[in-house]
Structures are given as structure tokens and as C-alpha cells.
Amino acid sequence: MTQTNKPKKKLSLQEKVVLYEKQLYDYRQLLEMSKSLSSVLEIDTLIESILYVCMCQMRVLGTGVFILKSFDADFFALDSNYNGLELVDAVSYLIPTTHPLIPFLAENNRTYTYEELESCFKDTSILEQISSLKPSLIVPLKQKNHLNGILLLGERIDVGEGVSYSDYEREQMLDIASISAIAINNASLIEMTTTDMMTRLKLKHYFYTILAEKLDFSFENRLPLGVLMLDIDHFKKFNDTYGHACGDYVLQQVAKKIFEGIRGQDMAGRYGGEEFVVMLYNTEKDAAMLVAERIRKDIEKAELHYEGKDLSVTISIGVAFCPPETSMTAKEIVEFADQALYESKANGRNRVTLAQTYKDNAFAGEK
Fold this sequence. Notes:
The protein is 44% helix and 19% strand.
């Protein structure tokens, strides 16, 4: 199905000048947008930026995007990638990669109103995830012939020109979608190369790189920062008793609890083996201890089952804190947290210990 073309009205010279000026302005906007989006490497921040751009450019009250969570994902998921849209509780906002909508959008490089999209399918019940969001426009996010996502624009604001999309605006949305698809692909590649595939947490080298940047920024702007080192207690027994597949399961479940226990501005990484590390950005000492204790309790209370066996898992944590007025390297603060973790282990495990930094000339506790 191709985009319909309306008969073109003959323009006066003045109208042509106005049109060309608008097009030049829009091209400049696209260039700036491309620069901005290509510089964002964190996928969640990138999606937020894309949604904001679309809301402003197309005067809509809401936007959302279905994307693949990973390269091997079986579903395009909406998750929290929306703003201003009203979700229906009874609807699962997952679109399988095998859904007939996916190849259809990948093969046709155009935008659709919901009514236009509906007319392309005999069984419209398969469009439930789309229809429930009441989009005013559906836009495929394509890189070459590969579909990276499905962008939905919500209710449009009428500023005296009506709420229909002109051919020019539809072409403009395709340009924005193309830029967005490339940016999402690049961010996904960065995500893949910096993420531990088993736990879905950040790799050690990437964690250190970001931690060093955040420590410098925190010192310059007088912000506090905390680091947690976490180690699964008696992890070897899971491998020895139930096999390495069980050990992998425990690692994944603990990583999930750690990730759920922190904010978007924080970062969790797999340090190695059964050890994890967390950066708590702009977080005071007492708050860092509360986060660590909450994670410890959540893991202790978690009901984990593996092949009919109930698993009891606990974790030991060391907490290091960098005050706003203190300059500290990534290596130093991680070492402080690691020594505090050693103290938690030495004092019976399944506990949280706060490190004493070099400002105190000593480390916490009796060994």
C-alpha cells in the first residue's frame, strides 16, 4: 500500500518562499536532532529523548514505542517506553516478532493512521495492543529493511490547522523515525557489548569507566556517591549440590533483585564470579546503607525454586561512601567497599558493613 498523494495546489511566489524557509528550518532541526540522538548511548535515556522530540514536533499529548529488549528477544515490548498514553490493564503490550504486523511494517516504508492500518488486515483483533492506545499515527522505526521498533503518536493538539497529518508532516515523521532507528541500533550495540549476558548487568570494565566519570562529576558539583560490593554467601554449594545450571539460576535471580533495588540513575554490574557491584549516584551515606539493607533482605526473603528444590540464598554487602567534598578514584572506593564486604563475610555473612574511608585513616571493625 503506498501513501496517497493529493492534487497539489499551485503556489504563489510568496507561498513558495515561506514553504522553502519552513523546509530549511525543519532540515536544520533534523540535523540538530540527529546530532543530539546519536550522542545518547544509554537506551532508556535515548527512548525518553525520542518520545519528547515526537511530542514537540507533532503536537501530540502522548507517545510510545515498542522495541526489542535485546537482539534475541521474541517480542517487541512497550514496557515503560511511553509518555502520556493510557494503558489498558487487560492488554499485554507485547508484540511477537512472528506477528503479521512486523513484516508488514518492515516492508512498507510509510506512516499509518490506525484506520489505514486496520484496513490492511482482515483480522483486526490482532491489532489489540495498537488500538487500545488510540494512536493518531503509527510509524515504523526502520534501519535498512530491519524493523527496530514501532512508534505510536497519541492524541493530536489542534492549533487551528486540524488534527490530520499532512503529507509533508508524514514525510517529516519518517525522517525522524529513520534517525531514531539508527540511534536505537547504535545504543543497542553499546548495550550488548557492555552487558553481561547471563545477569544482564554491566560488565566490570564498563562499570569502572562510568564510576570514574561520576566520581569526577560528583566532586566538581559537590554530590555524594556510594558504592556497594555484594557477594553471594556459600555460592559454591549450589554448583556442587545441584550443578552449574543451578548456580547460573541463582546468579540471575540475585542480579534481578539487585537491579530492582536501585534507581535508573544508579548502576549495577557483575564484578566477577558471584560478586556484584553497585554505584549509587547522588546518595548520602545513610541512604546507601538503607538501599544495601533492603537488597539484602529482599534476597534473603526471595522464594527461589530450582527443579523442585527450595533454595535459600543470602548475600553479604560492603558499603563505601564518598562525601561531596572528597576526591576519590574508582579503584579506591571499590577497594573500600571490598574490604567492608570482607568484614561482613568475616562476621558471619548475610549482613551489611559500612567502610571507613582513608579520611579516617583506618578501616572498619575488628577482624
